[in-house]
């Protein structure tokens, strides 16, 4: 029931709401405090010589590195390159994955034939295919996108197909009594009732796509956060490595929140 | 006498790797217009198979089903099928759910839409037409499911334990509710159930 129907809230309920809100605040404050303490301790340990900042870097040096990157105008270039590759990776991965899942749902014969291949592909670390793609496509952003896509596409196929096959048979029977064709069964029942599964697959794909992009950038790239990390490691500039990892964490977090928001928008009803 | 449904020597066998199952064997009966008959039997005695055959969802192994004098070979809009649960689609509003049949058949015109509205209005769901199924009570959902079946204007209704998913009290109310609606719309109906009391409560003709 909506709140509009009961304008007066009892004091007990008000106290309860306050308690819930307070609990939430305490959790948030603790989360921030842990992060702040971690960085403070890191900085302090580096200052008093407990750890060697040359190997472990330190927060102030990381901030300086990020500021330098910003001044050179490189910072956003690298972030955008990586983010675009990731978004393309998971979008293509999810779309192609759903498309293949639809085809396999359509033809039981194909599904049975393909099944063992999917199982092998699923257990194979897709990163191993990286060098092949680089040779085929060329050392560039396209190869990175394809690596990212390959990682997410297999999981998407399996998960979405499972969702399709799990659709209540009686719901399909119902539309069949209305004389539904196979394409109508797909569009009126299977796709809409699998929407939560598909959005969930998208969420998983985002995480996998990051893995694919960073590994891809390790292998071949002239820009991107993965490139910065690998470059920093090679020239022994841990400040650059740490700075890139922290930016990466922030970007991954933001992207996850955006997808979670998208999920909320799409899957309003369960 | 004109029969709306005639079942002649109907037989159905299911095949699986473990062998074959004789679900129905030599079934014969006829239903005249406006009749409401109940078929009572334990689970697994082939009641649902019988309804699926009448609805044209499956092809019988032997015999045939005549609906309105014509043999059934595929699903037709003459037959409305109500399943055990309401199976309203959660992603559609009540109105969108109710017009599902004509929408699939491609017969959704203004007249059908008006008919749907009229049925919603007559059976007290008009205010809920833009709500989603999860916002309705079990009884209301069952009524919406019946309206969805009626909007397709079937001559005959098949009810497959249509109320067994509800709790006992709701079921009593809904059973009466639905019975009244079916009588009012003057539909021929075949109800299958494992619950003898439910069968008798809707009774006009009984087949055991």
TrEMBL record, chain A:
Q: What is its main location?
A: membrane
Report the Pfam families cross-referenced here.
Answer: BPD_transp_1
Tell me the ranges covered by the ABC transmembrane type-1 domain, including all copies: 75-259
**Membrane topology value:** Multi-pass membrane protein
- Which InterPro entries does the annotation name? MetI-like, MetI-like_sf
Q: Which residues cross the membrane?
A: 26-45, 79-105, 117-137, 143-165, 208-228, 240-262
Q: Where in the cell is it found?
A: Cell membrane
Q: Which domain of life is it from?
A: Bacteria
Q: Which UniProt keywords apply?
A: Cell membrane, Membrane, Transmembrane, Transmembrane helix, Transport
Question: Where does it sit, as one GO cellular component term?
Answer: plasma membrane
Q: What's an example GO BP annotation here?
A: transmembrane transport
Q: Does the keyword Cell membrane apply?
A: yes
Q: Which family does it belong to?
A: Belongs to the binding-protein-dependent transport system permease family.
Name the UniProt record assigns to this protein: Hydroxymethylpyrimidine ABC transporter
UniProtKB/TrEMBL annotation, chain B:
**Keyword tRNA-binding recorded:** no
Q: Which Pfam families did the record assign?
A: ABC_tran
The keyword Hydrolase appears for this protein: no
Q: Which Gene3D superfamilies match?
A: P-loop containing nucleotide triphosphate hydrolases
Source superkingdom: Bacteria
Q: Which UniProt keywords apply?
A: ATP-binding, Nucleotide-binding, Transport
GO molecular function list: ATP binding; ATP hydrolysis activity
Q: PANTHER family from the xrefs?
A: ABC TRANSPORTER ATP-BINDING PROTEIN, TAURINE IMPORT ATP-BINDING PROTEIN-RELATED
Q: What is this protein called?
A: Hydroxymethylpyrimidine ABC transporter
């Amino acid at each position: 029931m909506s709140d509009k129907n009961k304008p007066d809230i009892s004091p007990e309920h008000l106290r309860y709401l306050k308690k819930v809100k307070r609990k939430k605040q305490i959790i948030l404050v603790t989360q921030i405090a842990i992060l702040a303490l971690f960085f403070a301790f890191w900085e302090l340990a580096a200052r008093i010589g407990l750890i060697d900042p040359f190997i472990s870097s330190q927060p102030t040096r990381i901030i300086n590195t990020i500021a330098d990157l910003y001044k050179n105008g490189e910072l956003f270039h690298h972030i955008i390159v990586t983010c675009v590759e990731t978004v393309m990776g998971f979008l293509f991965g999810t779309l192609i994955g759903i498309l293949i899942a639809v085809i396999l749902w359509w033809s039981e014969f194909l599904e049975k034939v393909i099944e063992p291949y999917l199982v092998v592909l699923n257990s194979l670390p897709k990163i191993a295919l990286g060098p092949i793609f680089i040779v085929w496509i060329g050392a560039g952003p396209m190869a990175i996108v394809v690596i990212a896509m390959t990682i997410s596409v297999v999981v998407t196929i399996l998960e979405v197909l499972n969702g399709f096959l799990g659709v209540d048979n009686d719901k399909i029977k119902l539309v069949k009594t209305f004389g539904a064709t196979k394409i109508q069964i797909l569009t009126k029942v299977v796709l809409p009732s699998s929407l939560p599964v598909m959005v969930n697959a998208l969420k998983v794909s985002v995480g996998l796509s990051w893995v694919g992009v960073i590994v891809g950038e390790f292998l071949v790239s002239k820009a991107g956060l993965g490139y910065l990390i690998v470059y920093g490691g090679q020239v022994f500039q841990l400040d650059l490595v740490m700075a890139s990892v922290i930016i990466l964490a922030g970007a991954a977090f933001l992207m996850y929140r955006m997808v979670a928001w998208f999920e909320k928008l799409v899957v309003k009803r369960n | 006498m004109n029969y709306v449904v005639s079942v002649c020597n109907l037989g159905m066998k299911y095949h699986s790797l473990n062998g074959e199952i004789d679900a129905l064997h030599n079934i014969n009966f006829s239903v005249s217009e406006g009749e409401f008959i109940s078929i009572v039997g334990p689970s697994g005695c082939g009641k649902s198979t019988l309804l699926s055959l009448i609805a044209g969802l499956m092809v019988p192994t032997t015999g045939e089903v005549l609906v309105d004098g014509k043999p059934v070979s595929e699903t037709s809009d003459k037959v409305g099928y109500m399943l055990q649960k309401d199976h309203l689609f959660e992603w559609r509003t009540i109105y969108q759910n109710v017009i599902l049949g004509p929408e699939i058949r491609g017969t959704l015109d203004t007249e059908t839409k008006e008919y749907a509205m009229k049925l919603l209005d007559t059976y007290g769901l008009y205010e809920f037409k833009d709500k989603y199924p999860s916002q309705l009570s079990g009884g209301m959902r069952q009524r919406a499911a019946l309206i969805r079946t009626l909007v397709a204007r079937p001559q005959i209704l098949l009810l497959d334990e249509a109320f067994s998913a509800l709790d006992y009290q709701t079921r009593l109310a809904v059973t009466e509710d639905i019975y009244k609606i079916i009588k009012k719309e003057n539909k021929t109906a075949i109800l299958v159930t494992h619950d003898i009391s439910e069968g008798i409560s809707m009774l006009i003709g009984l087949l055991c």
